[in-house]
Amino acid sequence: MTPHLSTIPEQSPIRCLLGGIMFLILAFLGTETVLAQGAPSKERVDASLRRRTEIDGNNVRASVFNFVFSGRTGVGQGVPYEWPKNTGRDYVALLALFFGGEVKDDTGKVIRIVDLPAFRTNQATGGDWNMNPIPGYFNTTTGKIAKSDEPSTWPPYWPDKLADPGDRGWKGSWNGYFGKNQFNADQELYYRVGDDNYNRYNYTPDATDPTRKGLGLVVDVRVLEWSQVSVSDAVFFIQEVKNDGTKDINKAAMTIWLADLVGGDGDSQDDAPDFDLILDIAFSLDADGVSSNPAFQGVFVGCAATLYLETPGNAEDRIDNDGDSPENPQTGGGPPVTYQMLDGEIPGDGIDNNHNGLVDEDSTYIAFGHQSAVTFADGIDNNGNGEAGSPVVTQQMIDEASTDQWIDSSQAPPKVYHWRRWPPNPESDPMQRALDGQPIIHLIDLGPEDLGKKFKDNVDNDGNSYGNLPVVTQGMIDTAAADVRHRFRVPGTNIILYNLTAANLGRKYLNIDRLRMPAWMKGSTKWSMSRGTTGSITTATGIRSATMSASTGFRIRTTSGKATADRHQAREHRSPVNRASTRPI
Predict the structure, then answer these.
(1) Helix (H, G, I), strand (E, B) or coil at 328
(2) Same structural domain, 468 and 559
(3) Are 31 and 315 in contact (CB under 8 A)?
(4) Are strands 234-243 and 249-260 parallel, antiparallel or unpaired?
(5) How many domains does the chain have?
(6) Ordered mean pLDDT values, 10 residues apiece, the chain (585 residues)
(7) At residue 47, what are phi and psi to the nearest 5 degrees?
(8) Pairing status of strand 496-497 against strand 526-529
(9) Torsion of CA 107, 112, 113, 116, to 10 degrees
């Protein structure tokens, strides 16, 4: 469908509803620290096995390279994202992923390692320092990546399926995302990459193999296309990232590298990106809707849109970084991050510098231009869907919160903050002191507007929790009765049960730090990767499929023609494993 230029405002996202390409990205990565699961694999990369294959199962055609890279690596080296296919009308030059982690090297020094897909070499030796394919996942005689509709590209057996006792290696079968010989998509590409040849740093991620370098990551990548009309202009990417080493990566991040080419070669100088941070959609637009490129003669230019379906989450900052909480500006309820909350904060250091309960809040979270502010987790049920039996905010609590203050003596003169926290003044309250000496900040910005609302108490009040959790005993209730706010500190943890009374007898409660957090307390492309854990990143690219976003709730991310997974280094996206109940527990 060709958009009529006169009906489309310049630089308007509406154009994507009429024509364009959509990228949808899903990322599954470990977001919380757990114990190691099994021994590291012995799979290692082979840079000589780099391959390229075209995906063209619907209206979009592009080259896919088996090192987390797609589009073209240079002029004439691959097919840029083309729509409709075989027309020569290009919209995106390349799309690739970066992975990074902060670790301590073998001498104890804190370093940051970033894995790239291409263009990085050891200047001293000429060695390859990029993400590279792992052998065994395609037929090396065909010169192509394994492709679902071309059995000749499949390997003799699949190394990741050798543990299947019923059919070891799945010989002669397709290793599909939806299962063995499941051809759900019209086309699906699959490959595996690693980073073990990145020996730039004195860091050994795997204690079982001192020659292994990088971060010890193994990434399964799938690229899928459907010809069904609602998604016939979209490309789906799924990257499952595993920390395959023996060391935890406590701080990790991913970002997308995207180079727009809207209107094709010779016309990309007037590309005009736009974005919506709440809807998580970024648009690569053409400023005037026309192109000097001969392939676009007689037609108007559409747009490319990039969407994050799911990505890792940050369970620590209490900010709804990607705007998908039920308590968001569109649905109402949740409190927005404000300019005043940035005062005294040092973004990027992982510390709640100004003691307002949020971590690393910055200007990308507040309202600016036509962008709405994101919300934060105040610990209060703002949209009325909290679990039955939860305690409710009282006038006494509001009065106490009004007395809250924290003095930052590091500023000259000392700065006094009134964040309306409850319990108030946690810095001087022994019950609210964490194991590391920092304050445990529970409810934030408690005011008269919160009277009668339910709040989080860390108790399962309606009996819908899962797992082997302990139950509240009479002894715990008796201990809490001695506290003016009926609090009980779970021994050896930073967990406090609030308003613990006889009504809670026999109910389950949280007893392990970070065991379960409500979805609205999660939220960035920053995450932690424990050894042996796997997570995933999913993206999609498309043209008309921006309409799909409205019906499915998918999310999109990219800015200024350069996709960024971190909202200007601070945005966040949640993994499906983090989608817990938003109701207080």
Answers:
(1) coil
(2) no
(3) yes
(4) unpaired
(5) 2
(6) 30 40 57 48 96 96 96 92 95 92 95 95 94 98 96 98 96 96 97 97 96 95 94 91 90 86 92 79 88 94 83 75 70 84 91 95 87 89 90 98 96 95 97 95 96 96 86 98 97 96 96 54 38 54 32 24 27 26 28
(7) -65, -20
(8) unpaired
(9) -160
CB-based contact 564:558 (threshold 8 Å): yes
pLDDT of residue 334: 82
Q: Which residue has the tokens 């009308």?
A: 89
**Is the torsion defined by CA of 84, 85, 90, 95 positive or negative?**
positive
Do 578 and 322 contact (CB within 8 A), yes or no?
Answer: no
User: CA-CA distance, 197 to 204, in Å (whole number)?
Assistant: 11
The secondary structure of 233-258 as a DSSP string is TEEEEEEEEEE-SSS-EEEEEEEEEE
In this predicted structure, what is the pLDDT of residue 29?
47
DSSP 41-53: P-----GGG--EE
Q: Which residues constitute the domain of residue 208? A: 18-312+526-576
Q: Are 222 and 241 in contact (CB under 8 A)?
A: no
The whole-number pLDDT of residue 575 equals: 26
The two tokens of residue 429 are: 């309250």
Distance CA 390, CA 464 (A): 13
Where helices occur in 485-566 by DSSP H, the ranges are 546-552
- At 155, is the secondary structure helix, strand, or coil? coil
Residue 493 burial (CB < 10 Å; 0-12/13-18/19+)? middle
**pLDDT confidence of residue 370:** 79
Q: Cβ(353)–Cβ(410) under 8 Å?
A: no
237 and 294 Cβ atoms separated by less than 8 Å: no
Q: What one-letter code names the amino acid at 271? A: D
Residue 468 in any domain: the answer is: yes
The answer to whether residues 502 and 532 belong to one domain is no
Closest to 547 (Cα-Cα) out of 15, 25, 12: 15
